[in-house]
Amino acid sequence: MTLTLLLDLDDTLIGNKLDSFLPAYTIAFSGHLAPFVEPAQLFTALTKSTQYVFLNQRSDNTLMEVFNEDFYPSIGWREEQLVETLDEFYTNVFPTLQGVTQFRPGAVEMVQGAVQKGYRIGIATAPMMPRKAILHRLTWAGFPPGDLPFELISSMEAFHYTKPNPAFFAEFLGQMGWPEGPVVMVGDDQSADITSACQMGLSTFWVTPNQVRSPDKRHTSGKLEDVLPWLDSVSPEQLLPDLNSPSALLAILQSTPAVMDHFMREIPSEQWSSRLASDKWGLGEIVCHLRDVDSEVNIPRVEKILREINPFIPGIDSDQWAEERQYPSQDCRQAFQDFNLTRNILVSTFEKVESSDWWRQARHAILGPIRLQELVGIIASHDRLHIQQAHQFLQANSTPSY
Fold this sequence. Notes:
There is one protein chain. The chain is globular. The chain is built from 14 helices and eleven strands. 40% of the residues are buried. With 402 residues, the chain is α/β, with parallel strands linked by helices.
C-alpha cells in the first residue's frame, strides 16, 4: 500500500512564527497598496475578509473568490483595477519577507527520504494566501519551483475550505483522487493540523519538541527528523484512515461538491461530457448522477429515518439513469448548481441532528438492518468512488500545473 504523506508548511518545513510573519506581511502589503488605499482602512478590510474566509462553508466558490467578494468592496476598488499591483507585490515584494523565516535543513532530508520510499506527498498548508506566496515559502524551505516533489499544494485559488475545518482534509484527499492506503498528516499546530486531521480520521505526527506518546499507535509526536523512523516502525494497516465517524462523514459530504467544482474548473466545458471509455462516465454524467442520487435517494432516505421509527428503505438502481435521462446532453453547469443545492440540504440536515440520531435504525431492502451512520457511510463511499472516477478523467484530460 502506498502511503500518502500530508505536510504542513509554516513551522513544520520552515520556521515561520505567525506573530512575527503576519505583522511584517501586513506592513509590506499595506505599504505597497498605500497609493490606492489608506493603510488603516486596508488593515481593517484585510482582517475582516480573512475572517470571512475562515468561516466559509460554500463549496461553489474558492477561498480566493470568497476573499475577493468581501475585500474589494471594503477598499472601494474593483479586482481588475489592482490585479497588476498585487501581482507585482507577490512577485517582487513578498520575497523580501524571507528574512522573517528560518530555514530548517532537516525538512529537505525528510522529504527526500519520503520520495525515496515512494510516498505520495502533498503540502497541506492552510490555503490562506495565493499560490505565488506559497511557492515562495516552499523555496525558502529548500524546494525551488522547478523541482517540487509534491503531488498537490493547497492554495486560495484552488481550495474551498481551510484549517481547522476537517472538510479541508477531505477536499485535499479528494483533489488527490481519494488515495487508497495509509494517510498521515504531519504538522506543528495542535488544533489546525492535529485535532482537525483526527476528526477526519487520519493518523497524525505532531511536530513538537515535547514528545507526547499516545496509546493509539496511529498518533505520535516528536521532531521532524523522527517522522520517517516512526513511519517505518508502524504497520501500514495501522495508519489507514478511519472515515466512519460522524465528523469524518460530514467532512466528506461537504467536500464532494467542492472537489467537483475544482475538477470542472480544470477541464474546458466542451470536454465535460466526453468519456475516457464507453463504460467510464465523463464529468457531466458524474455530476448529474450525484445530483439525482442526492435528490431522489439520499435525502428522502435520511428524512425517512429521522422521521419514522425503524422505517423500510427500498432499494433503488440508479446506474441506469445516465442512459435513461441522457446525462451527456444535460447542462453540466446547471447540474452542478443543483447538486450543490441538494448537497447543502443534506449536510445541513446532519448538522442539526443529535448524536443519538446517528444510531437510528432502518430496514434496507438489500442490506437488511442498518443504522443512519452506516447509511451515511455508504453515501460517503459512493462520493469517494465517483471522485476517484472524476480524478481519472482529470488526469487524462489536463496538464499538471506543477
